[in-house]
């Protein structure tokens, strides 16, 4: 009988404050969707880092005849066979180096033609204008500076470049977008909490006569508060379900279909469905607990029991 009474009170409360309940559901859904999206963005960045950092190379570009005339670093002339052999020997001795591969000027020219064949500059380039290089794969990409310090400025070396620097700029942008989403999520969360508190306050005020009668007949504080807490929890769960749907639909249309980013950006290793599904229970749990806890503390102030 008590359970039936609590459920009936929940239904009455939701119907009386239908507009505010709808606003609570929408704000909770948006804030939780942004929260889940931020978690997925963090996973995506981590996945991309693991995928791309593993492929990062440090490139040691060697001086050619053209550089000897135009680049002060190559003022002593093009790299010699002895210098190349010494560079390769020193690389093999370094514990941070996993693998070293050599790219000749002809190979560099071929790769350039494959990637930028439509460029107007491609028709005027010749193989001797491009530099041969050593492509160094590190055991830990963070140890780039060890290689740069050892070879930058050495005779026969034109420059030492780290591809990780380019990736760091990309990941910095993605992390910035993630923090922006978290900031918007925090704002929406504050709005949702304010709506929940106001909804509970209005609901408690509209039923002050019923609660007064319940106090007179000896009902416990918990029994009086339960319908209000459950109303907020139900609205929160509905908002959490909507947020889960938004995450699933977003993953489906952005990556698999619709925008089909997985096909258009096949160089990016996108997160799978397992990453999305593992976030849904957390989103639902927050959707249930956040409004219930907010309602509990609001009732201590607005409901004299």
UniProtKB/TrEMBL annotation:
<feature type="transmembrane region" description="Helical">
    <location>
        <begin position="232"/>
        <end position="255"/>
    </location>
</feature>
<dbReference type="InterPro" id="IPR047929">
    <property type="entry name" value="FtsX_actino"/>
</dbReference>
<feature type="transmembrane region" description="Helical">
    <location>
        <begin position="179"/>
        <end position="200"/>
    </location>
</feature>
<feature type="transmembrane region" description="Helical">
    <location>
        <begin position="21"/>
        <end position="41"/>
    </location>
</feature>
<protein>
    <recommendedName>
        <fullName>Cell division protein FtsX</fullName>
    </recommendedName>
</protein>
<keyword id="KW-1003">Cell membrane</keyword>
<dbReference type="InterPro" id="IPR004513">
    <property type="entry name" value="FtsX"/>
</dbReference>
<comment type="similarity">
    <text>Belongs to the ABC-4 integral membrane protein family. FtsX subfamily.</text>
</comment>
<keyword id="KW-0812">Transmembrane</keyword>
<comment type="function">
    <text>Part of the ABC transporter FtsEX involved in cellular division.</text>
</comment>
<comment type="subunit">
    <text>Forms a membrane-associated complex with FtsE.</text>
</comment>
<dbReference type="Pfam" id="PF02687">
    <property type="entry name" value="FtsX"/>
</dbReference>
<keyword id="KW-0472">Membrane</keyword>
<feature type="transmembrane region" description="Helical">
    <location>
        <begin position="275"/>
        <end position="299"/>
    </location>
</feature>
<dbReference type="InterPro" id="IPR003838">
    <property type="entry name" value="ABC3_permease_C"/>
</dbReference>
<keyword id="KW-0132">Cell division</keyword>
<dbReference type="InterPro" id="IPR040690">
    <property type="entry name" value="FtsX_ECD"/>
</dbReference>
<feature type="domain" description="ABC3 transporter permease C-terminal">
    <location>
        <begin position="183"/>
        <end position="301"/>
    </location>
</feature>
<dbReference type="Pfam" id="PF18075">
    <property type="entry name" value="FtsX_ECD"/>
</dbReference>
<keyword id="KW-1133">Transmembrane helix</keyword>
<keyword id="KW-0131">Cell cycle</keyword>
<feature type="domain" description="FtsX extracellular">
    <location>
        <begin position="56"/>
        <end position="160"/>
    </location>
</feature>
């Amino acid at each position: 009988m008590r359970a039936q009474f609590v459920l009936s009170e929940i239904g009455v409360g939701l119907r009386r404050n239908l507009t505010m309940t709808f606003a609570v559901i929408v704000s909770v859904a948006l804030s939780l969707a942004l929260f889940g999206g931020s978690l997925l963005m963090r996973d995506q960045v981590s996945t991309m880092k693991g995928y791309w950092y593993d492929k990062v190379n440090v490139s040691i570009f060697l001086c050619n005849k053209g550089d000897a005339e135009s680049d002060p670093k190559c003022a002593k002339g093009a790299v010699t066979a002895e210098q190349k052999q010494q560079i390769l020997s020193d690389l093999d001795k370094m514990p941070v180096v996993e693998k070293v591969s050599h790219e000749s000027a002809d190979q560099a020219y071929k790769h350039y033609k494959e990637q930028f064949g439509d460029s107007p500059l491609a028709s005027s380039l010749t193989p001797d204008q491009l530099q041969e290089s050593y492509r160094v794969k590190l055991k830990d990409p963070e140890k780039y500076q060890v290689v740069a310090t050892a070879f930058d400025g050495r005779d026969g070396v034109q420059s030492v470049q780290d591809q990780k620097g380019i990736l760091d700029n990309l990941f910095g942008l993605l992390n910035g977008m993630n923090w922006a989403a978290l900031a918007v999520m925090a704002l929406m969360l504050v709005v949702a909490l304010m709506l929940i508190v106001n909804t509970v306050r209005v609901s408690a005020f509209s039923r002050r006569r019923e609660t007064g009668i319940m106090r007179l007949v000896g009902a416990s504080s918990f029994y009086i508060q339960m319908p209000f807490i459950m109303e907020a929890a139900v609205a929160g769960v509905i908002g959490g379900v909507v947020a889960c749907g938004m995450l699933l639909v977003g993953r489906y249309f952005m990556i698999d279909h619709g925008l089909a980013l997985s096909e258009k950006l096949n160089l990016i290793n996108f997160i799978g469905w397992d990453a999305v599904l593992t976030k849904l229970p957390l989103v639902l749990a927050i959707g249930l607990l956040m409004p219930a806890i907010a309602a509990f503390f609001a009732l201590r102030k607005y409901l004299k029991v």
